């Protein structure tokens, strides 16, 4: 699976300079780091996110993330799983309660290296580190009942694409990631 991800990243067409630079570093780290899919790698490890859109692709599902105190996309740590699409789908189900979801493509939708500031989790300090994040485009029905995951989020809500950007209180993520995801979504149509 690791070699497959390396090949997918090599073939991935970077959307902008951020993706180009992040792609190079991700490939390098995949080749060098044996524990890159585990949180035991305290400085950097893989995560998978989902940009969850409705059938018309004019709304995005976001969770009010307790740790970041912000509206955010859904996703989580690879925790040893090298099939990142599987991680993204699993995280959407766990964080939203949605069961009728589908990847609009098995291909990577976006890549980004994200800085995670030091924080407390379950009573222990987690040092600042990097998430080597791969994002997939996932479709869900906005009529399906949502269920919050209380240990991670306190609310779930469908937003228009622009409202989803504005809802985030993380300026860099809002302007450089969520705006990029929406722009990429419009290029699919």
Give a structural overview.
This protein has helices at residues 2-11, 17-32, 84-96, 161-167, 171-188; strands at residues 44-53, 59-65, 70-72, 74-77, 101-103, 110-116, 119-121, 124-126, 129-140, 153-160. Helix content is 34%, strand content 32%. The strands form 3 sheets. Strands 1, 4, 5, 6 and 9 form a 5-stranded mixed beta sheet that branches. Strands 3-2-10 form a 3-stranded antiparallel beta sheet. Strands 7-8 form a two-stranded antiparallel ribbon. It has a single domain (2-188), classed as Nucleoside Triphosphate Pyrophosphohydrolase (Alpha-Beta Complex), CATH 3.90.79. It is globular and about 45 Å long. It is of the alpha+beta class and 189 residues long. It has 5 helices and 10 strands; from the N terminus they run ααββββαββββββαα. A hairpin with a 4-residue loop joins strand 2 (59-65) and strand 3. Helix 1 (2-11) packs antiparallel against helix 2 (17-32) and helix 4 packs antiparallel against helix 5. InterPro entries: NUDIX_hydrolase-like_dom_sf, NUDIX_hydrolase_dom. Keywords: Hydrolase. Belongs to the Nudix hydrolase family. Pfam families: NUDIX. One of its GO terms (molecular function) is hydrolase activity.
């Amino acid at each position: 699976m690791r070699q497959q991800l390396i090949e997918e990243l090599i073939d991935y067409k970077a959307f902008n300079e951020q993706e180009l630079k992040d792609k190079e570093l991700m490939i390098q780290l995949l080749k060098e780091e044996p524990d890159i899919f585990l949180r035991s790698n305290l400085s950097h490890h893989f995560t998978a996110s989902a940009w969850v859109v409705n059938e018309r692709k004019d709304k995005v599902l976001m969770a009010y993330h307790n740790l970041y105190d912000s509206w955010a996309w859904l996703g989580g740590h690879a925790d040893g799983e090298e099939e990142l699409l599987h991680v993204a789908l699993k995280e959407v189900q766990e964080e939203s309660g949605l069961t009728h979801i589908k990847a609009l493509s098995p291909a990577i939708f976006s890549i980004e290296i994200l800085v995670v500031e030091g924080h407390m989790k379950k009573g222990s300090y987690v040092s600042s580190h990097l998430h080597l994040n791969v994002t997939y485009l996932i479709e869900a029905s906005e009529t399906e009942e949502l269920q919050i995951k209380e240990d991670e989020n306190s609310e779930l809500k469908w937003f228009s694409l622009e409202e989803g950007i504005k809802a985030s209180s993380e300026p860099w993520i809002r302007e450089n990631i969520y705006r990029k995801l929406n722009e990429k979504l419009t290029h699919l149509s």
